[in-house]
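INFO  loader      accepted 1 record
INFO  loader      residues=299
INFO  predictor   begin
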Amino acid sequence: MTVFMYIFCLLAWGLNFIVVKIQGTPVSLEVSLTYRLMGSAIIFICIACIMRPKIKFMPKDLVFMMIFGVCNFALSYLLFYYATIWSSAAIVTLIFSIKTVLTPIALKVFLKTKLQTRILYGGGCGVLGVIVLVYPILADSTNSLALNGILLACLGTVLTSIGDVSSARNNHKSINPLHSNTVGFIVAAVLLFLISVSQGHQFSFPTSYSYITSLLYLTVIASVFAWMFYLKLIEQIGPSKSSYMVALFPAIGGIASVIMGDSEPTLNLLFGCALCSFGAALALLPKRIKSGSIPNLWR
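INFO  predictor   done
INFO  writer      dumping tokens
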């Protein structure tokens, strides 16, 4: 069962952005994301009502739970959606893998945790991998839309790391992850709904097979089941080993992107994926010295 849950999370999150690409834009990305977040929020509310975990948070903790939802589910998701449509799923997946480095750096800045040298080495490899992949786009001055997508993916990754800092604070306060995720999804859904309304988007619901199946995948598989399985993995094998799956995300995203025709199988893609995977693995290596450990907060 442990192996199944590990592979499930690996594939569910590794293919996340390619599914966003398949879903497309029959309605605005804001509306599509609102549907996803609302569906996830409803499911988590139902799970919370059934499991009824003990409430261990104070009213002031809600602020950090809301920050977590805004950064990790609302704004970062929206930026990643646009980045995927404007560039490619492979590029977004590679940039997202740098999160294994940005999160410890954000923890150092905001929570004053210790930053180990291997994190910086892994980050250097990850950044180099991204540069190798996006260099052809940067050299093409006419491909401004893809360049904007790259910038949005970078900003989305930074926001996710900031959300991880809030999550670390919540974990330190012994807040049940089910509560923080439920509140996070509710806040994110409300925010995306308000953004959609303010921009005048129409809330029509596409009935095409590709749209409905993609929405179900993103809502149920990538946002609910994968998260639940990941919590079980943390209980059974620990957060460090569970987080190693992120090192394989660039490879999975790159292969899927090529198969779907979203990217060309170039040497830049090959070496970019390899460097990002190596960098993520290096950053996640177990601590072998007596310095303070870095919380592994990837979800």
